[in-house]
Amino acid sequence: MTLTTPVPTTTLPTPGAAEPSSRRTRRADARRRDEGQSLLHYLAVSLSASILVLLLAVAVAVVGLPAVIGGSAMTVLTQSMEPGLPPGTLVVIRPTPVDEIRVGDVVTYQISSGESAVVSHRVVSKTYADGELTFVTKGDNNDAVDPAPVKPVQIRGTLWYSLPLLGWVNNVLNGSNRAIVLAVVAGSLFLYAAVSVGGAVRDRRK
């Protein structure tokens, strides 16, 4: 008589059989978790990129473009040019030949020739005094024209563009602060690039 030992049998999943619900639930949870992390990562990267772009735009407007044209960025401090140029407005002036200045242009000129103090007012008329061209100027918010005609030697330039509120940023960027702020912006750009590259490599490995 021959004795035989029963061989354990393993039930193989039938092709096309349904996956257990617990496994499906775990996979769905993992997928939702990954999607949530991806969304947060995307939002964080988008926010940081937007901030960097804004900083770059401010740096270009305050420092870059004026340097390219040989102009200057200045801050409106008084109310004489309201409502168009209220206090805190950044005004960028560019060198302009005197014979190209027209009535209606906003000119920035030295209050006294050779001194650093300047004012930006609108040209309301052009006159000749003793054979020399002079400009009569007036603040848009002032009732009367400026007391003395402006001579060509006093004029620093004409208004190129203006940006509300960025004048206060320009004040911060003046002097030694400018180098510090530019260094911070440059460092932030390099840091952002490094983080972006690191995140891309990590995602690829995953």
Automatic annotation (TrEMBL):
<dbReference type="InterPro" id="IPR001733">
    <property type="entry name" value="Peptidase_S26B"/>
</dbReference>
<feature type="compositionally biased region" description="Low complexity">
    <location>
        <begin position="1"/>
        <end position="15"/>
    </location>
</feature>
<keyword id="KW-0812">Transmembrane</keyword>
<feature type="region of interest" description="Disordered">
    <location>
        <begin position="1"/>
        <end position="32"/>
    </location>
</feature>
<feature type="transmembrane region" description="Helical">
    <location>
        <begin position="39"/>
        <end position="69"/>
    </location>
</feature>
<dbReference type="InterPro" id="IPR036286">
    <property type="entry name" value="LexA/Signal_pep-like_sf"/>
</dbReference>
<keyword id="KW-0378">Hydrolase</keyword>
<dbReference type="GO" id="GO:0009003">
    <property type="term" value="F:signal peptidase activity"/>
</dbReference>
<feature type="transmembrane region" description="Helical">
    <location>
        <begin position="179"/>
        <end position="201"/>
    </location>
</feature>
<protein>
    <recommendedName>
        <fullName>Signal peptidase I</fullName>
        <ecNumber>3.4.21.89</ecNumber>
    </recommendedName>
</protein>
<keyword id="KW-0472">Membrane</keyword>
<keyword id="KW-1133">Transmembrane helix</keyword>
<dbReference type="InterPro" id="IPR019533">
    <property type="entry name" value="Peptidase_S26"/>
</dbReference>
